[in-house]
Amino acid sequence: MTKQIHLAAHFPGVNNTTVWSDPAAGSHIEFSSFARFAQAAERGKFDFLFLAEGLRLREQNGEIYDLDVVGRPDTFTVLAALAAVTDRLGLTGTINSTFNEPYEVARQFATLDHLSGGRAAWNVVTSWDAFTGENFRRGGFLAQDQRYERARTFLETVLELTGSWRGDEIVADKDSGVFLRDPQAGSFRHRDAHFDIAGRFDVPRSPQGHPVVFQAGDSEEGREFAAASADAIFSRHSTKDAGQAFYADVKGRLARYGRSRDSLLVLPAATFVIGDTDAQAAELAHEVRRQQVSGQTALRFLEQVWNRDLSGYDPDGPLPEVDPVVGEGHVAQGRAQVRMYRDPVATARQWRELAAEKGYSIRELMIEVQSRQTFVGSPGTVAASIDDLVQSDASDGFILVPHITPGGLDPFVDTVVPLLQERGVFRADYEGTTLRDHLGLPPVGVPDA
Length: 449
Prior knowledge:
By secondary structure, this protein is α/β, with parallel strands linked by helices. It has two domains: 6-276 and 373-439, Luciferase-like domain (TIM Barrel, Alpha-Beta Barrel), CATH 3.20.20.30; 294-369, no CATH class. It has helices at residues 31-43, 75-83, 102-116, 130-133, 144-162, 220-229, 240-252, 278-292, 295-306, 344-358, 362-369, 379-391, 410-422, 435-439; strands at 6-11, 48-51, 59-60, 63-64, 90-96, 120-125, 170-173, 177-180, 187-191, 196-200, 212-215, 232-235, 265-270, 272-274, 332-333, 375-377, 397-400. It is globular and about 80 Å long.
């Protein structure tokens, strides 16, 4: 059976995907940028807009990491404002389960779901990062098994709170206003190793019952958490072979939780460069990669593996002959830094071999290994590639990350979406009003088929 493709849009922070030197690039903090981006996604009939989270500016060599200098506005504030300028687009926010409390998060998401008419979603994440933890009263960090256990009970508690109201528990009276029919409405009591709370939840049941739940972990613990609890899992595996392996693994975990294969969507992040022809797109993609990785940026990337100050090296010269420094301390501080390099010495050896084979300088090597371009080609080529990956069970769709903000989504919406619609694999219009409708998920409280 032909699968329907799910599409979403990620509003990027300032990072090495974004080409902020391009004259077309705009603000990452002014509301007009968020509004334009969201409205383009809604014009394309996308499922949802996605905001990542940054709780502290990254640092390198004791200085603010230059690609992060603009920061990140508060997620709930931005999504609530976007609810007023969109009608159907889902609104997904990344909220950390390590540094927040269930009552507050439940209340914020229930409110967003009401304000948006049932379009709220929560990307549940954890944090291993003591550097980020310094911003919070608990400080420090949790070990991986503890942080996923906290995330599990955090989510469980939030769903208990949002589910503490049933649909028939309030009635409106013209004389006295809204009052409770059931005196137990909203009451809760939760006690476990992480939380001991009791009271009355003060936001009535929202249109979706609770927000759609996303998860973004690729570890064993993250995959299992998603299989048990999430409606969708974000993935970094956007090639066919890697995508099919991840897809089969995650979907294969669902049965032991009494869930069907359709109850969890697999959505990799994907970048794109579109041209009138494949050749033009390839030429543009090469230029975009050079804009994304300047000489200074190349050195910053290299330092994340070498764990030493490399500012004295020529980015157009060869890789350092010295090996990486291995230890607990690191020149890079902040979430999403360096953790992908489990064995920096082995990584350095592989990079030296690649640089020798291709004759790469430091910058050329970093452009090669840091490339994030998933789809490059004409609109027809990109549409065919996306359709092939979805139909071959490498994914259920993609979260698109443009390299220009806020207008970078427009070429995809205007040229690729119509071709997917012609293929009959993407909606011509929204058929429902809630995000659960868009994702094909059953209403809350209805078991999987």
